[in-house]
# Entry
Amino acid sequence: MTEPLLENSLRSPRSYLTVGFLSWKVLLFSVSLLSPRPGYDTSTTLLEGVGDSSLLPLIRWDAIYFTETARRGYVFEQEWAFSWTLTRAMAFVAKYLQLVGVPPVTAPAWAGISIANASHFLAVLLLYELSLRIFGRGPKGGSLALVTAGLHIVSPAGLFLSAPNAESPFALFHILGILSYTESFLCRRNGAIMRSDLLLLLSGASVGVATALRSNGLISGFYFAYDAVLEGSQVVQGSVSLMRIRKLAVIVISGFLVALGFVLPQIVAYQEYCGSKSLEQRPWCSAMPPSIYTFVQEHYW
# Structure
């Protein structure tokens, strides 16, 4: 019985992943709605418009910070431990949700939930595509790709991937970055140089967005650093050509885009706390390099 089911799923893998994703979400949300309230953590009840609504089980822990900063901006320094990029995206989506009748007090929460679930679904589909590139498109490779994507649906993170947190959008952009990187390699091997360069730039930009969502995305910049060292060493050894210089330039730009995802939110924080308009210079302003992320984690958490 398992083999016919697998054969059918391989004929229409994206449809099966979509049905599986929706079924899993319905199960999770049903458990969420039926769970006892308010639970052991009553912090959510302090949020205006959220404490007595169906949103209560979804707005916990980090989601409280994301939702509140999306609603009224950053007020306290420690709130910078929670992605500036995600809260700005939530605030942007919340404006449009208000246009269709969502109350302003709950719009940021619904925006975060919408972003999280859409990101999770797209990440599942992209992970399937990435797995096909790795395992191959044959029956065995297709089965492994389908299982891999299916496991991401039922991730142990559970409802956390449906709540206003950075994990789902981070996974989406990070997987997109790795998929683009892999596709770039395959295109270059097949002689499609221009497409390869564009995909490599897309990879850097995608990982850069992931890094802006969660700073540990910066680790994936080592892909580009390794490639840059590899190509640079060839140039130093005398293997110089226009094509090699071009490839090295694209790699360096892609790596710069990753670094930009880490630096840009900190520039915004630096202007607020360390600029000429700030009333009091914070201790981290004089550090080298001045990093609000490092200071907040050490000082508050």
